[in-house]
Structure formats: structure tokens, C-alpha cells
């Protein structure tokens, strides 16, 4: 389902600056390489954990984003997976991360940052860029043709997704939410 709501139904929205659990600027366990800067916040209200990655000056941003997401999945005990369903859920998160970051590379000027947040039921992926375009699944979807499948994949794998724009600020944040494995 495509939407332009800033948050999915029932979402508490982003943590305000300075709120408990907001990024503290360098907690251990958040590693980034090739120029990216990572921060971790845990113990947020409602048990939500948050990790942020800045792509400033980074090269190889898609593998960097996947590695960062994989580290978060290990920290949040989504990996190592005990069952095939849990493994599939973790792989879905990594695929959505890849698709959103790749779209920012192809259709914007590259991603600015990524935020991953997780509670016991949902993981949220947010990728910010400076692009003006509106992401949407290609219609009609042509499964046999190369390219143009990214947002179709995101739509199929996610509980919900959407776009957030801030007035008078260039760019957007594309977000997607996936359910935790059973």
C-alpha cells in the first residue's frame, strides 16, 4: 500500500530531539565503514530501539546500508534466526534496505541517511535523500522486464510504506515497515 502519511497507523512518530532514546552520537556497537557515521539509541519509550546511519562522504552505500542493517538485526536478536520464517523475515528487511537505498542512488542524488527502529512487533526502515520525485510502484508491473521492480518489492514485503516531506526542506524520507517474525 502506497501512502504519503508521515507515519503508519498507530505509530508514535519520530523521537523528538533530546528525548530519552534519541540518538546519543556514538554508542558502542554501531559501526560504519567507508565514510558512514553510525549512532545507536536503545531503551526508548515503548521498548523501541533506534539506529542511525549517515552516508556523508560514504562510498558503496548499498552494501554499507545492508551491513549496518545486518548488525542491527543481530543486536535486536532477529539474527541468527532459529527458524526458516525468522530467517526469511530478516532477509526481507535486508532486501527492503537495499531497494530503498538503491532508489535514492538512482532517482535522487544518493541517500543522506538511514534510520532503523525496532520494537517487538515492527521494524521501520527510513531512507532520506534530497530528491524531489515521488516513489511509486511501476504500473502495470511487468515481471519479465529488467528494472523498475524496487517499489513493487517494497510494497509486497512491507506492512505499509510511505513518504514524508518537510515543508521548505529539499528532499524526502521514504519509510517502510515490516512485521517481526512469529
TrEMBL record:
It holds the Pfam family HATPase_c_2. It comes from the Bacteria. Residues 1-47 are annotated as: Disordered. It comes from Streptomyces asoensis. Keywords: ATP-binding, Kinase, Nucleotide-binding, Serine/threonine-protein kinase, Transferase. InterPro entries: Anti-sigma-factor_SerPK, HATPase_C_sf, HATPase_dom. Residues 70-175 form the Histidine kinase/HSP90-like ATPase domain. Coiled coil: none annotated. CDD domains: HATPase_RsbW-like. One of its GO terms (molecular function) is protein serine/threonine kinase activity. PANTHER family: ANTI-SIGMA-F FACTOR RSBW (PTHR35526:SF3), ANTI-SIGMA-F FACTOR RSBW-RELATED (PTHR35526). This is ATP-binding protein. The keyword Transferase applies.
Amino acid at each position: 500500500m502506497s501512502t504519503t502519511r508521515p507515519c503508519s497507523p498507530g505509530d508514535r512518530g519520530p523521537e523528538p530531539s533530546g528525548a530519552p532514546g534519541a540518538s546519543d552520537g556514538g554508542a558502542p556497537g554501531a559501526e560504519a565503514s567507508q565514510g558512514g557515521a553510525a549512532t545507536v539509541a536503545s531503551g526508548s519509550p515503548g521498548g523501541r530501539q533506534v539506529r542511525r546511519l549517515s552516508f556523508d562522504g560514504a562510498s558503496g552505500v548499498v552494501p554499507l546500508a545492508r551491513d549496518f542493517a545486518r548488525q542491527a538485526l543481530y543486536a535486536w536478536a532477529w539474527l541468527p534466526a532459529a527458524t526458516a520464517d525468522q530467517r526469511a523475515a530478516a532477509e526481507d528487511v535486508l532486501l527492503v534496505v537495499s531497494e530503498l537505498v538503491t532508489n535514492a542512488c538512482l532517482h535522487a542524488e544518493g541517500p543522506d541517511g538511514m534510520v532503523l527502529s525496532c520494537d517487538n512487533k515492527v521494524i521501520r526502515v527510513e531512507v532520506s535523500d534530497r530528491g524531489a520525485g515521488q516513489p511509486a510502484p511501476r504500473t502495470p508491473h511487468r515481471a519479465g522486464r529488467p528494472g523498475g521492480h524496487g517499489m513493487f518489492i517494497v510494497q509486497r514485503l512491507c506492512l505499509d510504506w510511505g513518504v514524508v516531506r518537510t515543508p521548505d526542506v529539499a528532499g524526502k524520507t521514504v519509510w517502510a515497515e515490516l512485521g517481526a517474525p512469529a
